[in-house]
Design goal:
heterodimer, A: 320 residues, alpha/beta, 7-stranded parallel beta sheet, 6-stranded antiparallel beta sheet, B: 551 residues, Urease, subunit C, domain 1, Diaminopimelate Epimerase, Chain A, domain 1, TIM Barrel, 3 domains, 8-stranded parallel beta sheet, 7-stranded mixed beta sheet, 20 helices
Amino acid sequence: MAAAGPIPLSVIGGFLGAGKTTLLNRLLQGASGIRFAVIVNDFGDLAIDGDLVADHGGDTITFANGCLCCTMGDSLLSTLNDLARRDDPPDHIVVEASGVADPRQIADVAVLHPGLVRDLVLVLVDADTICERARDSRLKETVIHQAEAADMIVLNKCDLASEQHIADARAWAAEQAPRAALLETAHARIAIERLLTLDSGHGIGNGPLRAPAVAHIGHAHDHANQFSSAVVILEAPLDLAALRGVLNDLPPSILRAKGFVSSREDPSRLHLVQLSGRRLRIEPWPVAARAGVVPPRRGRVFVGTPDMPPAAGLTRRLGA
Amino acid sequence: MAASITIFRAKKILTMNPRAPAATHVAVRDGHILGAGDLADLSVWGAHRLDERFADKVLMPGMIEGHCHSMEGSVWQDNYVGYYARRGPDGIERPALRSIEEVVDHLRRVEAEMGEGEDAIIAWGFDPIYFNGPRMTAADLDRVSQRRPVVVVHASFHIINVNSVVLQRANISADTDVMGIMKGADGEPNGELQGMPARFLALGAIGRDHFEEMGKKESLWRFARSAQLAGVTTATDLANALPETTIANLKAVTGDPDYPLRIVPAFLGLSCPAAEGAVKMRALSEQSSDKLRLGLIKLVADGSIQGFTARLKWPGYFNSSANGLWYIDPDRIADTLAVYHEAGLQVHIHTNGDQATETVLDAIEQVLTRLPRPDARFTLQHCQMAHEAHYRRMARLGVCANLFANHLYYWGDQHVEQTMGPERAARMNATGTAKRLGVPFAIHSDAPITPLAPLFTAWCAVNRKTVSGRILGEAERISVEDALSAVTLGAAYTLKLDGELGSIETGKRADFAVLDADPLAVGAEGLKDVPVWGTVLGGRVFPCADIAGGL
């Protein structure tokens, strides 16, 4: 087994009835071969399909609802500690936040926890009812906090909502979370497995650069045009500080990027670059020769919404 | 052969029995009260032993703390650094620390006595709301130690200050982009950690888990000592997820005849899906004993007023802070309540802000309409901002209130100046309204948030005086008699234990508070200073003197 790396943690937030559980069940169906630990903080009418999690060799764990500062924080933290310390830790942890929890606080645990790394914060909103909730004096602040925490907002149930409601929901989301990517769907149909870091953690040293479903250089659409992806090959060494600046300025339509570059200071040394959940990490790649391991190819995969910049545009931005 | 009868003679006995409010003797058999009266009244029960040790004492029903936490037992293993002097469960009073400098000096003395090693120094009760001036920083605590982790937990338990050792161990630096890590002008973390993630990971980095500590036997013993010193014979633990180890420890300590407290733990109703919780608590309620009562459920609707996390109706916070937080989806309260209610379990609900109170009353009304059950006795805990209209609804719905009277003293001034403004602050914890409108009520300390001391709590409800001496809502004051009733029968009623506890009369359990003065004679102002000599629990005498320094 490879040495344990930090486990990516993602949070799925959103109000009661927004489609969180449906999305989670889809993720579990869609991503085969990945061991998820699913932490459920929302005890709704729908249940996570525990068998589905078990089929993946993972676990479903519940944790206490309530004040994040008191019981809930403790319950969440001890659960995460247990997962991180396991001999056979999961590949990815997904937390289904309660309808009134602030997803950012949960994601922040992963930022601080040495055994975890923060991945995606995705917030689902019911396109039909969100604007009504945002006007409700009881619920207003809760839905705003959630939107503000999101790397990505998914307007769900668009099949049930009128054009006007969808337009209003879009405008509301853009106002609350201008930096978040925005996606519209129904029945929580999102190829979320494309957005999560599923090839990190334990597989980090072993796996090749995980190309998009249709792995070719250029621009690929998948899942009914839901996401686009682009592969950019960067053979020339880059100035890492400049790269950092460029990547931090990418438009919200880019949801995720991952790949390897070599630095100008030491072209023989590879760096792993990951952009996930609006967080950028650039870290030296441990090239310590391992028999049979082919050095990863320089280049980067970008995944985004269909309006993301094409490969050529990205190459230009990166100055390659 | 009949069990032996003991008749205690006292200078005076306040019975809380309206048919015979005062007595001089009480007869006890089998841990229960045969009757109260004078010696002639009680001698008819037959042969007895006359116990005269309380001849110069005043007895009242053992007091009942309807809202406190077993954490009152675990916090005292650490160093108290609060703004007010406070007595620990060992009976020793900790001094008041009136500035950051005094806190640092105190902890330096603690450090000096610790010897070698790198054991952490943990302190609690720090309340900078009373200081006008700079906040505590890591540099302050580095003066305590640059080798050991030092953590100072605020009185709210929601903020901590740490030294540089803790920052390093928790990997918190200028680059850490996490909410609640306070930074100084230089961009470096200044040691104040406000958010849950930072706070818990800092505590985790030094190997401390507050919630695990709470359920330990030593903590439960300290909890009982704290109660005994205050004349309390029954205390709630509101609330607890009740893991198996905690249940086992609760059973073990309460099963010890030397353990001086009855405990009523409330199950944290949102710690698992309600249907599972209901099954668990139905089963556990069968395992109750005379000193451990299981079956109560607690839900939490919103946050705290001084933490600006309570949910308020218009016009919101006086200082324009954003509205607070829900800890349960407001649209899901009724369904959650219904599950526990339908299982025959009693539910207490924490509501601080008026919007939370109103939303929960709506939910209770829905549940009682759908699933009518006489005498469900839903109880709103804290219920600090309820308006008169809410009390009218509570009276109609049979809902009780357990009001946080201690808040009036400790944070009353802040409520006037920051959270509520003058008019709403004056109606907070409206014991007078509850009394007038016939809402059954108790008053509480929420210990360890404020000291476990029902006579002080009663003093707060009677005087409604703040730290600065301001009177907060004169019309809401209640009489000394009503306040004493609130900390005995009133609290027993909210727990459905009023048939066996809360007054001194035939058939009830022989639980008494033994006082050195008559609380009815000392007057409203003196109530908080009435010395507690000890308690009697099920006829067994527990003098406070046995505790002093003996833990």
